[in-house]
Specification:
- The protein is of the alpha/beta class.
- Helix content is about 45%, strand content about 15%.
- The chain is built from 22 helices and 16 strands.
- It has helices spanning about 15-25, 45-50, 50-65, 70-80, 115, 120-130, 145-155, 175-180, 195-205, 210-220, 230-250, 270-280, 295-305, 330-335, 340-355, 360-365, 375-390, 395-415, 430-435, 445-460, 465, 485-495, and strands at about 5, 10-15, 30-35, 90-95, 100, 135-140, 160-165, 185-190, 220-225, 260-265, 285-290, 305-310, 355-360, 370-375, 420-425, 480.
- Helix 12 links the parallel strand 10 and strand 11.
- Helix 17 crosses helix 19.
- The N and C termini lie far apart (about 45 Å).
């Protein structure tokens, strides 16, 4: 049976998985969601004996039903190969009695690799399946990690081009250098004078520009997205929650009939939404703990039922979470609103026009799976320092936000159930913030010298992704105002 996808804002939309992946965004601006969440058809005992690749197939076959077994296996094997520096793909470490799911062993040392290593393969397979002859233009906004992972995934992929917008002063030095040194004639990186929300809003506006869409079609191009608004990004993220449950069951950490809490550092809401989908599929997950930094719009939402982006935007040491418009929350709103596309569209219209919306008491009652909290800059640095001093394990700032929020959860609820904290980036990607948290003087050292010092402190090798950047040539220097984003796109594509 094929699983079809509809739109969060238009219930009349009905497309297959491959079509949803190609389009990225529904024509009226809604996000694609499965008409139903499929149930896992393998037991936890069976899954416990599987590799990451095998687990990926068991999950993805249920969502991407119009892909053949051969197509899916080819995509999975092409994605999760030697580009990851460990055969486990997503190893689990233990520190202070808590499991850390390390999702940063891919080519760009951040969790976005888990999905963006496979998305180009899914997209090119989808294009062949749907006889698409136009060149696919991937248009993406990034708060730091998605950009490089998408660029690495799509570089030199035939039939594609990729354009990434990032906030010029809103990412770490290593994040920026990863992007602006990206090779590939089909890649284009643009800094904007603004924050991530400005970049994301600009990209959505370009997607919705019907006149531009017609110009693109006439020139042989069509847009798609590599952001987590694309269902082809979201489905691969479900895999690692199922995998974590199975592996911790295999290790005896998760007992038969028990559940596992998951703590997720959260910005755009895609990562924790994948955990929610995994739980709905039957993965034995308990509370889903949404960890925010000082841009605590999600924490306030879970506390009050009101989403309000009308507040100061704060640049923090965890830049991938410096977000005030969490796009994937729309998918959860759709679910707790009874899968009512008109209700969802009205709330999203309120967000676009007034910067806020409020859910009903009935909808709030359906958020019982979630708990929200946040960590301040000082708390985040303190968590990095404390866990290192006690265990020798070094966290990046995003993972430290999650660990800090988890401490508050335990203190508030008394829940000491088995827990996995999602570790979303290598500490080597944020050497300045990490070394400062560890009480190390930066002095005149650049991020690469700091990486060498961090290697000695953490007793781990500097990742190749950082080493190769040191002498990499800067290839992308374009910086524009938000209002100039559309012109930058047209210029790169050669459309007058």
């Amino acid at each position: 049976m094929d699983l079809f996808y509809t739109s969060t804002r238009d219930g009349s939309v009905r497309v297959k998985a491959s079509q949803a992946i190609l389009q990225g965004l529904s024509p009226e601006g809604g996000l694609f969601v499965p008409e139903e969440i499929p149930a896992l058809d393998r037991s936890l005992e069976e899954l416990a004996g599987m590799t990451y690749r095998e687990t990926a197939y068991e999950v993805m076959k249920l969502f991407l039903t119009d892909f053949t077994r051969e197509e899916l296996l080819h995509c999975i094997e092409s994605a999760y190969d030697s580009k990851f520096d460990t055969p486990e793909i997503a190893p689990i470490r233990e520190a202070e009695g808590v499991s850390y799911l390390e999702l940063f062993h891919g080519p760009t040392i951040a969790f976005k690799d888990m999905a963006l290593s496979i998305l180009p393969h899914l997209m090119t397979a989808a294009a062949k399946k749907n006889r698409v002859e136009d060149e696919i233009v991937i248009l993406t906004a990034t708060s730091g990690d998605t950009g490089k992972a998408a660029l690495a995934g799509f570089s030199e992929v035939p039939g594609t081009r990729i354009i990434v917008f990032y906030p010029k002063d809103g990412v770490s030095p290593i994040q920026e250098k990863q992007m602006v040194t990206q090779k590939g004639d089909n890649t284009f990186v643009v800094g904007i004078r603004g924050n991530f929300d400005d970049a994301q809003s600009g990209v959505k506006e370009i997607f919705g520009d019907k006149a531009l869409k017609e110009e693109m079609a006439a020139a042989g191009f069509r847009f798609s997205s590599a952001n987590s608004i694309n269902i082809g990004r979201l489905v691969p993220q479900i895999v690692y929650y199922v995998y974590a449950c199975a592996q911790l069951y295999k290790k005896g950490v998760l007992k038969k009939g028990g559940t596992l809490n998951a703590v997720v550092p959260t910005g755009n809401f895609g990562n924790i939404l994948a955990a929610y989908y995994a739980k709905r599929m039957g993965a034995p997950l308990g509370r889903l703990i949404c960890a925010s930094n000082e841009n605590r719009v999600l924490y306030d939402f879970f506390c009050t039922g009101r989403y309000d982006r009308n507040r100061e935007f704060i640049l923090t040491s965890s830049p991938s979470m410096d977000i005030l418009i969490s796009s994937n929350l729309e998918r959860l709103i759709y679910e707790i609103g009874g899968r009512n596309s008109e209700k969802t569209a009205a709330l999203m219209k309120s967000l676009a026009e007034r910067g806020s919306y409020e859910i009903t008491p009935d909808m709030r009652e359906k958020l019982h799976d979630f708990y929200g909290n946040y960590a301040s800059q000082e708390e985040t640095a303190g968590t990095i320092r404390r866990i290192y001093q006690k265990t020798g394990y070094v966290l990046d700032p995003h993972t430290a936000v999650a660990a800090g929020a988890y401490e508050k959860y335990r203190a508030e609820t008394g829940d000491t159930k088995e827990t996995v904290i999602v570790s979303t980036a290598s500490p080597f990607k944020f050497t300045g913030s990490v070394m400062e948290a560890l009480g190390q003087e930066r002095g005149e050292a650049d991020d690469f010298r700091l990486a060498d010092r961090l290697s000695g402190i953490s007793k781990t090798e500097v990742p190749g992704a950082v080493r190769e950047l040191k002498d990499a040539k800067i290839l992308h220097t374009t910086v524009v105002e938000v209002k100039e984003m559309k012109a930058a796109v047209k210029g790169f594509l050669g459309i007058d």
